[in-house]
Specification:
Oligomer: single chain
Shape: elongated
Number of strands: 0
Length: 105
């Protein structure tokens, strides 16, 4: 059981790393002969950070769903409530970048 959980987290972690690296490649761009566009780089960095936060929130949500699902065969109420808290917390973390964009403008 633990090996399958490790395998799931390895796959999710490698997916998050690949996505982060692919988004990070865009930070090294230059605008051309005018030089480096600092505002554009800051916006890309903001996008990268918000994407990473969203991915972390989705991973936490998936872990909560897994924990919630595993609580049924063992009839463990505390694991079930922890799973629900992880799901809600992960959704809040995943939605935080959208909320910040909404509040800032």
């Amino acid at each position: 059981m633990k090996t399958s959980l490790k395998r799931i987290f390895t796959v999710l972690g490698s997916f998050a790393l690949i996505l982060t690296l692919s988004l990070g490649v865009g930070l090294a761009e230059e605008t051309g002969a005018d030089g480096f566009d600092l505002l554009g780089a800051i916006n890309k960095l903001k996008t990268l950070i918000f994407s990473a936060i969203t991915i972390i929130g989705l991973i936490v949500t998936a872990f909560g769903g897994l924990q919630f699902g595993l609580s049924f065969p063992s009839h463990d109420a505390s694991q079930r409530s922890n799973g629900l808290m992880f799901i809600v917390g992960g959704l809040i973390v995943a939605g935080a970048p959208w909320l910040v964009n909404y509040l800032v403008g």
